[in-house]
Every structure is written in C-alpha cells, then in structure tokens.
Design the sequence.
C-alpha cells in the first residue's frame, strides 16, 4: 500500500508515451481516490443535500475546449473537488428525502470499483462467464429473499424504464400478432393495442408504450380507490369497454409501491382480470419489491407470483448505486422471442461450451452488458439477509415516525396512507381562510422553496388528488432517527417562513 | 492512507448494526481493493484472455442461497479472487483481439470509482447539476475532437443499441404521422414504415426497428460494393421500389466502421438519398467515430455533418469502460418530442433555476442516469487530444502490421480491406484440394478452436461474403507491437495444429 512519489512535472511516466497509466501511478492515484471518497462520504452530511449552484455555473467553470496535451491526474482530481462536488445533489446525504433514495453502500461501491476494472462485457456467456452466471446466482438469491417463484429467471438492466420496456415488448410479442416479424404499421387487420395501468402508474410505463409504437393512446390509466390503489373492477370494465370498441388489451401493469404515495395495487385481483382477458401481467415493484426482504412485508407481493414479469430496482431499495434494475420473468423464452437476432459475428464458431447458458444479449435491448451483478452480490453478502431486513425495517419505522409527527402536529395534514417508507402531506394552517386548495398549493410550494433554501434537508413533492403535496421518502442508508427529528424542525421552520412571506 | 486493523471476527464494527459500512472500514477495504485491482491489471497478461471455465462452474462454486448473516468483506474479496476472476474473459488483456476492444484505462477506472461514490442520478438538472452539465461539456469536447458541427448536442446512453433505438424513435416521430400520440396499430391509413441499412449493418439496428414496432420486415438491408460499403444507388432504388409498393421510408442508417470488416458507408452520397426521400439519416459510428480523433482519419466522417443523428461509443474506441455511448443530434427538440412525458412528481415545484437546461430524462428512455460523463472527461484530460490521437494512430499501425503479415505469408488470405483497425482473413493452405469453400470454413473453425485452446490470444470471427473469417480487432490500450508478433506466432501454430488434426 506504499505510494510512489509523484513525478516533478505532475505527469505520470507513461502518460506521454503510448498505452495505459502505469501500475505505480495507478496505485498512487487509486489510493488518493480512496482517501478522497472516504472524506466525501464522511463529510457529505455537512453539505446542503440539494445542489446550490446556479444553472450553467459548472459549465462556466470548465474549459469549453478539450486539452491538447495530457494533464496531471492531480489537476483533474483537484477540479473534481473544486467544480464537480459543489455542483452535485448529494444522493448519499443522510437527509436526502426526495424521490426514492438510491444508496451507494460501502460494499456496493467497492463492487462497482471491481466491475469497472474487470470491465467484463457479458453480451455473450463466453465474453463474461462469471458475469453471466453471477447474474443468474444473485437474481435467484433475490427471488428467494423476496419470496418469488423459484423458477423465475432474473436479468439485470440499467433502469426500471428499460426493464418495463423489455417486459412490455415481450407482452406485445406474446399477444400472438406476429409483431416482431411484421410490425404494427400498415396492417389493417390489426386492432389498436392497449396497456393498462392506474392513474398512479409511473410515467416510464407510458414512455415504454410510446416507444413500442402503441402511442400515448395505447396506455389507459384506470381509476383508483381512495387509497390510490388501482380498482380491479374499473380495470375489468375498461378492458371490456375497450374490447367492444375494437381495442386489443395486451398487458396490465400493477404497481407495488407507486411513485407518488407508495400505494400498492391489489395484484391478485388484477391477476384474475388479466387471466380472463388473456393479458400479460407486469408488476412494477421497482421500489416496493425491496420491502419484501423484511418477511413481515412480504404480503405486499401477494398475487405477484401469478405475474408474467416483475421489476425490482436494487438501486432504489437495496443499497446499491445506479444502475441496477432486475427484471424477473416466468418464461425467459418470451424475451428471446421478442429480442433474439443473432448476426454471424456473434454466432458461436463451434458448438460452444457456453450454449445452453443464455447469452444476456438475447434478454433485452442492450448488446453490451456491464458486470452489474457484482455490486449486488457483494451487498447481499456484506449485510446478509437479516442485515438488509433490519435496515429496511428501520426505514419503515422512521417513515412511520414522520407520519406520526404529521398526524400529531396542528397545522399539518397527511394526504395519503403510509404503507411503505414515503409520507405525503402538506402544511395546512388553521383558519377558514385556508379552506382554499389553490391557496394551500401556493403556500406549500413556498414551504418547499424555504426547505430548499435552508439547505439542510431535501424533500420532493407530488400531487395527491390534484393537491400539491410535500413528499418525504426515507431510504438513504445513512439516515438516522436524528435526521428525522432534524427534518421536522426544518419543516416547521420552513412553514413559518412561508407564512411570514405570505 | 493508514489502514485500521481488521476486527478479530472479521466483521466491521458497523456491520451488525444499522447504516452503512463505517468510514474506517471503508478506507481499509478501499485500499485493499486498489491493491487487488492493481495486481489484477499488472498480471492480466499472464492469464488466458478467453475464460477457460466450464459452463456452470462459477455457479456451482457459489452458494445457491443467500447468507442470512453478514459476511466479512475479506471473505467476499477472497471469493472474487477464487471464483470470479478465473471465470472472466479478460477485456483488459493486451491480446484481446475479439469483437471491438473496450479498454478500461486508469483515469477512466478512477472516474467510475468517483461516479459510484457520488451516485448522482442526473434524471433532472436539479438532481445532478454537475453530472448534467459535465455531460454537455464533455460531449461538446468530443464533437470538437471528431470535427462534428458545433451546434450538435450530445447525450450519453449506456450502449449504441439504446442510442440507435432513441435515434430511430425520434426518426419515427419526425415522420409526422403522429405515432407518439396515436401509435402504429389499428390505423388503416398508415403505410408500413421502413428503415434502411446495408447487409453489413449492426444487428442492433434491426433490434431497434423491431422494438419500435416496425417488425423485422421494417428493416431492409441494401447491398454493398465489393468493399462492403452500402451502395447508394441500390439504396435509392430500394427506397423508390418500396414507395411504389406502399412503404414509407423513415430512416437510413449509414455505418462508419461496420462490425464485420469496419467498412465505411459513403455517408455523403447516402445523405443525398435521404434528402430526396425525406428520411432521417442516422450514422452508426459507434466504433469508427473514435478514429476521427486522429485528424488524418477525420475524412471517415465526411458527410456525417448532414446527418440527423450520430452515435459514437467511447467505451469502444476511447479507453473508457462500459458503458458510455454518445448520441449526437442536430436538433434536440426531436428527442423531446419523442420522449418527453412529465408526471407531477418530476415537474418542478417552482420556476426552477434548472429549467432551460435540459433534463436528461427527456432525452431518451431511461429515467435514472448514472454520472457517465465523469470517466470520459477524466480520460480526455489525462491523455489529452494528442495522446488519444497517438494511441489511435498506433492501433491503426498495429492493424496494418497484421494485414501485412497476412498478405506476406503464404497460406494466409485477407478477406477484406483494412480501413480502420480490424483485419478479416483466413488460413488458406496451398493446393487444389483447398479450393473448396466448405472445407476452408471447417478448417478455419478449427484454427480458431486451436487459438482458443492455446490460451494466449483471443480473436473472434465473422462471415465475409458467406465465408468464415478470422477477425482480429486491435484496440486494447495495452496492446503493443510485441503482442501482434505473438499473435502471429499463435496463428501459425493454430493453423498447423488444425492441419495436423484434419
């Protein structure tokens, strides 16, 4: 672990020649990066979680043109400290309560570090046997921890947007209309196709539907019950109505943990509707699926075993950094039907020992595949199933604490149930002059602006029943009970500031 | 840089509690990973480049079930050494000559390390200002280095498969048929849509066409000239013929550096055809675009300035590890038209300082976005424009050396021109009994198998005019002239072995 001394001109010996950074320089710079990252993680809580830089400030602080000559790595790392870090919104901040947290835990960071160095491209089994097989092993572990059917097969994509796109492409092909061969356009015999979700379904589903050529009209949002869960009776009615009008329903997306309120669709009842309709059932458990690692929350996935596909994002709830989205399918042949196209330069030259093992390129859109399984496997081992469950349980407990504070505090109003780790609420001052939704919306926008200006916590917002809601998502691995209490102090302060400014 | 002593039970102090790995443990493990990676990179040339493990061996060597309790990180890293590394095909090996190389250079590895720790998700400007703006800066640098129009805007996707899908989705929307709103199916007024490439176009284009709902029939492969370049006259003829038959041509994909032979389509002539046809021109320079960083190769991109979109993969030719694919578009509004769908939870709460700066989520399919710009920026700075050009030039020189060896050696036959860094050839023993294509194919399959068995070099193969070809791609940053000479020794040895075994 000894570091060599840097050369006098700051450049590494190999830098002016050909080839890569030399090993002594790599060691020296690598150890410096470890120290820099450790310092960053140790002090991230002292920074404002939401970046405070002005738009364009980062760009303005960097040369508009690339350097002609090599620069010392020290100079580059100095610019990272000077320009990049102050321009970051800190997803590793313990008081990052916005969107859904993505935690880069220690073991996961180290997993990414190894993966970057190995740089295995697991497009084919033979180009990355360990990466291909570890992806099988770790997704099977994850299925077991979530209580999913053991026969399901998991593949890792970058994001849930892509996992959902892949699942719905498989659904489109499974509809038996020969879309993979003949496409959708210029076929007068084809009905228009539709995918169903609820009014709370994530926007990535509509984006996938558009990408697949079904258009925004190809997505129908079904209404919800008062707890923001898809109403299966309305779903069945929508499907029947659409059939009469000539639509062909091909898939339904049920969500376990919607983005606004983490409501949980009644998957079993939706599975019944799908079965009757002959429609593919895709479960979007991108966020909510992780909770199933705590056995007492496994019931959230009830009915999901009847789905055709399910997505869960370890980069949301399982403490690995972006990107890591696992798509499970009951029948992997469906993916191959939708995606396999093998050109000669990727066809095995001889009966390859790798055939029979799936080549990951046949399971989705991207040909190149990073070794994403490594960080997930290292994280599952480092914390262990019980350690993960304990951390998830703690986040649920902390979210309940936020909900309790909202419920117990005059002037605050909860806007949705809290089945997972997200709390939607607003400040609702007492007095008849506040019985005005537009006024409340404007006030809560000011509360959020005051929170942002405070620079201590970062919350996001959403709409619940058309009302502007503050939204606190607990999930950062570093968040403690003290951060929740601090959050509450900041919320009270921001509400007072917003009232003062009224 | 002092490391703490590991605790006696091997577990880190924080591991059994809640929260993340503690800072002292992170430092200790981080420095251990630096040493492990440095050793890996120093000794990778001593391993066989192509993994020699049996299918299922990695899986069999790992527990089928996840651990209940935490495991010491040392135990996990020991398994990486024991099970994972021997199961890797080593993309960092200096004698990796297969497919297209992807080099994880020192500065790029360190860039990935920082990105993993920052874990910035640049879905919105505000969730990652520095990541969003650095992506703008570094893609502008890249455009300048490639000689592309300064007004073009670049975005980073994971792979060229996805960049091409995004480009063709924009092309589909730009056709003015209202596909984003109304979709393709059940619209008898719509013609079938077609995308054109050549017989040498990468399979990801057909995959994108299928994903977009145009079907395999929606891709038409046009014939090539004797140098495997798309014939623009055949293209114009195909488009005219298809129009008469009722097809609507929407896009043409021209390739600068095809996968089999790195042939280079005549982009300017194709641009003329596209202009006449009102079709979108997408240039697939995923591999070949990098060569333009050496000014003497910039002519390869002649005509590309008239394209609507162009993809180049720094993870192929610019020494950054997977994944990093840059999609340039002349008019970024086209991407927003195809992809922007903003739900309330992602809509800014107030006139946000970030509006006006594009939110990366609106530029493609994935919502979550890793901080991929960092490694590219660090690599461009560390080597400098001249350092990158020198390395690219050296790879061209080494490929020419391979071609010269093939051309000068009796019994070897080159099968295609070598405009870039890939050589396609075969062993063709002297004698009339070898004037048999099927016999030659079988023989060369044996040559390749003997090469693989040798464990010294890793080449891949392709088909050139239906003939089985050995394929050597130079591009690994660590490859030297000595590796080329060693390659040739191995090829001669493998050819002799294949003949002996005949």
Sequence:
């Amino acid at each position: 672990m000894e570091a060599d001394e840097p050369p006098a001109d700051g450049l590494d010996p190999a830098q002016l020649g050909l080839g890569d950074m030399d090993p002594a320089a790599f060691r020296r710079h690598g150890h410096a990066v470890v120290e820099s990252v450790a310092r960053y993680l140790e002090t991230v809580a002292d920074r404002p979680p939401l970046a405070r830089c002005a738009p364009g400030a980062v760009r303005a602080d960097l040369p508009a043109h690339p350097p002609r000559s090599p620069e010392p790595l020290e100079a580059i790392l100095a610019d990272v400290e000077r320009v990049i870090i102050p321009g970051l919104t800190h997803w590793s901040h313990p008081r990052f309560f916005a969107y859904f947290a993505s935690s880069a835990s220690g073991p996961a960071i180290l997993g990414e570090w190894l993966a970057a160095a190995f740089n295995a491209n697991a497009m084919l089994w033979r180009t990355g046997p360990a990466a291909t097989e570890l992806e099988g092993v770790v997704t099977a572990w994850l299925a077991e921890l979530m209580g999913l059917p053991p026969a399901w097969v998991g593949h890792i994509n970058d994001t849930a947007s892509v996992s959902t796109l892949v699942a719905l492409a498989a659904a489109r092909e499974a509809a038996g209309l020969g879309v993979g061969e003949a496409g959708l356009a210029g076929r007068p015999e084809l009905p228009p196709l539709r995918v169903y979700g609820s009014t709370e379904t994530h926007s990535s589903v509509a984006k996938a539907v558009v990408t697949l050529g079904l258009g925004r009209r190809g997505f129908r949002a079904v209404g919800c019950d008062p707890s923001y869960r898809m109403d299966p009776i309305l779903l069945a009615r929508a499907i029947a109505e659409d059939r009469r009008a000539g639509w062909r329903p091909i898939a339904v997306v049920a969500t376990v943990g919607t983005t606004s309120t983490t409501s949980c669709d009644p998957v079993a009842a939706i599975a019944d509707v799908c079965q009757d309709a002959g429609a593919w059932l895709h479960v979007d458990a991108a966020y909510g699926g992780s909770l199933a690692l705590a056995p007492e929350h496994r019931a959230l996935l009830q009915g999901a075993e009847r789905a055709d596909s399910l997505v869960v994002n370890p980069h949301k709830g399982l403490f690995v950094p972006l990107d890591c989205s696992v798509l499970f399918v009951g029948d992997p042949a469906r993916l191959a039907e939708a995606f396999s196209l093998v050109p000669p330069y990727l066809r095995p030259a001889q009966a390859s020992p790798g055939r029979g093992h799936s080549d990951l390129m046949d399971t989705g859109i991207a040909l190149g595949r990073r070794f994403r399984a490594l960080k997930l496997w290292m994280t599952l081992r480092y914390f262990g199933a019980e350690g993960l469950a304990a951390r998830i349980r703690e986040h649920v407990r902390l979210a309940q604490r936020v909900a309790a504070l909202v419920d117990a505090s005059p002037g605050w109003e909860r806007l949705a149930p809290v089945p997972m780790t997200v709390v939607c609420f607003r400040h609702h001052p007492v007095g008849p002059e506040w019985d005005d939704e537009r006024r409340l919306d404007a006030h809560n926008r000011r509360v959020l602006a005051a929170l942002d200006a405070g620079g201590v916590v970062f919350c996001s917002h959403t709409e619940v029943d058309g009302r502007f809601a503050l939204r606190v998502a607990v999930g950062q691995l570093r968040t403690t009970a003290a951060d929740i209490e601090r959050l509450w102090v900041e919320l009270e302060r921001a509400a007072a500031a917003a009232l003062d400014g009224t």
Summary: Residues 50 and 89 of chain B are 5 Å apart (CA to CA). The first strand of chain B starts at residue 96 and ends at 97. Chain B has two domains: 25-50+89-106+378-502, 120-370. Chain B has 15 helices and twelve strands.
